[in-house]
Amino acid sequence: MGCRFAFPAKLKYDKHHMKKAAARSREATHERIVDAAARAIRRSGYDGTSVADLMKEAGLTHGGFYAHFASREAMLAEAADRAGAEAVATSARIAASALPERALQSLLRAYLSKEHVKSPEMGCPVAALGSEMPRQAPEVRRAATRRIKEMIDVVARQSPDWGQPGAHEHALVTAATMVGALVMARAVDDPKLSDALLKAALKHLVPASA
């Protein structure tokens, strides 16, 4: 009678858990790279974000990059998606924490604030990267566009005229004004002008009684 070779039950169990642990570790590493990339693109722009610098910031070696991404463009697409998701989540959280009738005002005041001007790395990626977007790969633009639509939807849902004719157009104008004012406030080297741009946009978008 032949002798069959079989792994001991404990060894099978250990291998199974080793595979699961390896998968979790790889996923955690991937998330760390994407988180670092989402901050880096907002801080330095798409063109200013190199693979070598990004991997160094994530505490990893340059050679490990292609174990996680097929290309630099694939990484930038994930980073754009992550940055957009964070901005949308922050906006929704600010709106949800306010009284319904003051949700839009709270969102606008947070967006058009000095703190936001000074924190591009953690802020709205549209304001930080919008001018670079036309030159990016299709997958990067696709990811960013999806999140921009979500941002507009968040603004629309807080508007008093939500559900009425013209509400979507109103949200488009509001979102465009928010982003444009923030871009200009960051662009100038005159603090007084920067503050004036924010205040003017808020005055236009937020009713005096709010």
What Rg do the Cα atoms give?
Answer: 23 Å
Q: Would you tell me the overall average pLDDT?
A: 89
The span between the termini is: 88 Å
Major sheet details = none
What is the helix tally?
9
Overall tally of structural domains: 1
Which structural traits does this protein have?
210 residues; mainly alpha; Tetracycline Repressor, domain 2
Account of the 3D structure:
The chain is an all-alpha fold. It has a single domain, classed as Orthogonal Bundle (Tetracycline Repressor, domain 2). The chain has nine helices and no strands.
Task: Give a short synopsis of this structure.
With 210 residues, the chain is mainly alpha-helical. Helices cover 69% and strands 0% of the residues.
Chart the SSEs and their pairings:
Layout: H1 9-44, H2 51-57, H3 72-96, H4 103-111, H5 114-118, H6 125-129, H7 138-158, H8 167-187, H9 191-205
Helix pairs in contact: 1-3, 3-4, 3-7, 7-8, 8-9
